[in-house]
Amino acid sequence: xxxxxxxxxxxxxxxxxxxxxxxxxxxxxxxxxxxxxxxxxxxxxxxxxxxxxxxxxxxxxxxxxxxxxxxxxxxxxxxxxxxxxxxxxxxxxxxxxxxxxxxxxxxxxxxxxxxxxxxxxxxxxxxxxxxxxxxxxxxxxxxxxxxxxxxxxxxxxxxxxxxxxxxxxxxxxxxxxxxxxxxxxxxxxxxxxxxxxxxxxxxxxxxxxxxxxxxxxxxxxxxxxxxxxxxxxxxxxxxxxxxxxxxxxxxxxxxxxxxxxxxxxxxxxxxxxxxxxxxxxxxxxxxxxx
Length: 290
Hints:
By secondary structure, the chain is an alpha/beta fold. It has helices at 17-22, 47-56, 69-81, 99-113, 128-144, 149-159, 173-178, 185-190, 214-227, 245-259, 272-278; strands spanning 5-10, 26-28, 31-34, 37-40, 63-65, 86-91, 118-123, 163-168, 195-201, 204-211, 235-241, 265-269, 283-289. The protein folds into two domains: 5-160, Rossmann fold (3-Layer(aba) Sandwich), CATH 3.40.50.10170; 162-289, Hypothetical Protein Tm841, Chain: A,domain 3, CATH 3.30.1180.10. It starts with a strand and ends with a strand.
């Protein structure tokens, strides 16, 4: 009999809360720091509260910290007590965070103390909407129950280079403050007053196109997303936003029209751990074509 597979993620993907419950996904929270105050993402502070605080206190740039090994171990323990022995764990891209290292250390410790447990740790190579698209696909595959854990890991590794994360920020203040713009630093520095459309590739920001207003940035994101979709079968699309639901609705509507797509388009806030470096007004499209 095939063993049950547990899915555990870090909170950087910001999977819609209803899907977390539907697929019984374990989520390990990042830490968010505003000055001396510390919160746990989706536990002691919601995404809406987080962005409202950023908006009202622009002088106070938040910081983030990865989940500790004890927090990963607690997530493993909870699934173990529910009868799981095989685990699939996905995290934000390694260049963006040490989350995967923390999970790996915790997994090693847990497997040593719990014989018979196999924990597979995978960096998503992306974050936010792209990470969510990948993790939703994993949840679907686990629910289908056709693949054992090892075969599922092989399938996920095939999905990694096909996962797309497009985004645009409303201002570059937070990306510069957090030092999270990688090789795009010179490009973004010169275009400080322009709304760039960018893509995460292997955890690094790559500029796609500079545009001079928000509406053009949104249309460019839709065009770039459509270019990357060859067929609408077996497609996961996620749209995430940071206090700009109207813009997210705009993206969803235009994606449906241009793709003639009637399937689900998942929407959720940009998670706080990513939003700390992108700020209010950030918006993204994540795509995974199976």
